[in-house]
Specification:
Blueprint lengths: L2 H24 L9 H21 L4 H17 L5 H16 L5 H14 L10 E3 L5 E3 L5 H10 L5 H14 L8 H15 L4
Antiparallel strand pairs: 1-2
Helix pairs in contact: 1-2, 1-3, 2-3, 3-5, 4-5
């Protein structure tokens, strides 16, 4: 098994993802719903990474190195059109994190993303979206005190601090809230049903 080649392949998937995101930021299209080209890239990356995972198991740091393990996590985090794949990866990542072969932060982000996509409260407050006031705010979470305790336990800043970070980043990237909040919310719910996150 040539882990070096596999690691390079995973990093290539991540680089393609980041390059496209950057292109969409530059053209001011990042906030315009789920871009078709990005959707295709995310799905294609997920299929390729799924084949790699079937071959080597979860791309842990001990197998593919830190950079490729982080890259794999990013590809999984962005595979929002593939519920089965993302849920499979949460279970695999839980095991790898318990063995100290991947970062607990990555598991927190992935667990939260799956919860939000399923319409459930997140545990770590890592997922943000535009609210009806045109501000980026944390998606539904269970309890602020508990969220901040969980965040602290894995080395994350407080949810209040992170909200400031996210909002500043969005301004730097010239992201803008959706023109029609209710319409976008309805489109997201429709999309979640279509790909199988919700019934």
């Amino acid at each position: 098994m040539n882990y070096r080649e596999i690691a390079e392949k995973i990093i290539e998937l991540q680089n393609a993802d980041l390059a496209l995101r950057d292109k969409l930021i530059q053209s001011g299209q990042l906030s315009d719903g789920y871009n078709e080209e990005m959707k295709e890239l995310h799905n294609r990356n997920a299929i390729i990474l799924n084949e790699i995972i079937d071959q080597i198991g979860y791309p842990a740091i001990t197998k593919v190195g830190k950079a490729a393990s982080e890259a794999a996590w990013l590809v999984i985090q962005h595979a929002i059109g593939q519920p089965g794949f993302m849920k499979k990866c949460v279970k695999l990542l839980e095991v790898v994190v318990s063995e100290n072969k991947a970062h607990a932060k990555n598991l927190a982000y992935l667990t939260d993303r799956v919860a939000v996509l399923e319409g459930k409260p997140q545990l770590y407050g890592t997922q943000f979206d535009w609210d009806k006031n045109g501000e980026l705010s944390p998606e539904l979470f269970d309890d602020l005190i508990k969220v901040n305790q969980r965040r602290r336990s894995i080395g994350l800043n407080s949810l209040e601090e992170q909200t400031g970070v996210i909002r500043r980043q969005a301004k730097l990237e010239k992201q803008t809230p959706p023109a029609d909040f209710e319409k976008r919310k309805a489109e997201i719910e429709q999309w979640k049903k279509a790909v199988g996150w919700t019934k």
